[in-house]
Specification:
The chain has 338 residues and is an alpha/beta fold. It has 3 domains: 127 residues, Rossmann fold (3-Layer(aba) Sandwich), CATH 3.40.50; 51 residues, no CATH class; 131 residues, 2-Layer Sandwich (Nucleotidyltransferase, domain 5). The protein is 35% helix and 25% strand. The strands form 3 sheets. A 7-stranded mixed β-sheet has the order 3-2-1-4-5-6-7, sandwiched between helices. A 5-stranded mixed β-sheet has the order 13-12-11-15-14, sandwiched between helices. Helix 8 packs across helix 9.
Length: 338
């Protein structure tokens, strides 16, 4: 589902409805922050003085934003930040009395439509879903991609596939005009409008010296992946040691790839099992003999993609690569694609 969400309410009644939403999200394993104007702040609900500044901060740090208010307030608040249907968070509006749940942004790729239905069940409300394929109960390729852990490469092709479905035309292997291909490798364009779906089956562990630019890191990663014949869309997460959690270059690369940047304490990295490319210099600097390989394995285990007893060498696809103060390593795991 999601990892982080924020619920924004603007009145006492809205806060009560918001608390029901937060409880439902927390019960599903989602860390749900509560935000209200300062005068309504209380335990579990942080106060804000300026909505525009609060939304600007939250829009880029959470997976879902739920407004308990009039839809117009939410639309004006998010308008300056809406940029990319594949990157924008899910945004929903719930009225204060919890009669309606309305997804207004990222209905498919961000999962807002599915979340609206889930919250509507919890609140005994009516989900108001307006996306065309949902209204007509048709297949949605971007929803399918999200559910199957697939990255969408050509987002502009989504409209062609959806348009074909809405026009009553077949897609996929049934027509030469529109279709999608699921493959971790380049397979060409068998349809006039071909949408490539790439299994996100790789975790990349990264390390770098302080101050390395995002451009340099992205170029390094891209060059390594090009050499190996891999699509960068296969990357499901970047990982490193927690000493690098605020490193601007690494954060920039994670944003560019549209994947989470996960960091772990040196003790967690040291507990990983397997054969690693050890470095006395690295151990002296950060307290563990390897960052990139160990963090890739740690992320895969922590996120549930590999079993706790997994060893690095059993899933390694690329051992430590180094260049100009940057290192990376990659491992792969299986993902469900049908």
């Amino acid at each position: 589902m999601y990892k982080k969400a924020a619920v924004l309410a603007f009145s006492g009644q809205g806060k009560k409805t918001g608390e029901r939403i937060r409880e439902a999200l927390e019960a599903a394993g989602v860390h749900a922050q509560g935000r209200v104007p300062v005068r309504f702040a209380s335990h579990g609900w942080m106060g804000f003085s300026t909505l525009a500044q609060e939304v600007e901060k939250l829009f880029f740090t959470v997976d879902a934003l739920i407004f308990v208010c009039a839809a117009g307030i939410a639309v004006r608040a998010i308008a300056p930040h809406v940029a990319d249907k594949l990157r924008d968070p899910a945004v929903l509006v719930v009225d204060e009395t919890a009669q309606f749940v309305i997804p207004i942004l990222s209905g498919h790729a961000g999962g807002a439509n599915a979340l609206a239905r889930t919250l509507a069940d919890v609140l005994a409300a009516i989900p108001v879903v307006t996306t065309a394929t949902d209204v007509h109960d048709l297949f949605s390729v971007d929803t399918f991609a999200r559910q199957q852990g697939l990255a969408i490469v050509e987002k502009d092709e989504i409209k062609h596939l959806s348009g074909a479905l809405l026009g009553g035309e077949p897609i996929g292997a049934l027509t030469p005009e529109c279709g999608f291909v699921i493959s971790p490798k380049p397979v060409g364009t068998p349809f006039t409008h071909t949408l490539h779906l790439v299994p996100q089956d790789m975790v990349v562990g990264v390390g770098c010296r302080r101050g390395v630019s995002g451009e340099a890191l992205f170029a390094f990663l891209s060059a390594v992946f090009a050499r190996e014949g891999w699509s960068r869309f296969r990357i499901r997460a970047l990982a490193s040691i927690d000493a690098k959690r605020e490193e601007p270059g690494l954060l920039a690369v994670a944003r560019a790839l549209n994947v989470p940047f996960l960091t772990y304490a040196k003790e967690e990295l040291a507990a990983m099992q397997g054969s690693f490319s050890a470095s006395a210099f690295v151990e002296g600097a950060v307290g563990v003999d390897n960052v990139c390989e160990r963090s890739a394995l740690c992320a895969a285990i922590s996120e549930g993609w590999l079993l706790p007893e997994s060893r690095f060498e059993d899933f390694c696809r690329l051992r430590k690569q180094a260049a100009d103060g940057m290192t990376l390593a990659a491992l792969a795991f299986c993902v469900k694609t049908c």
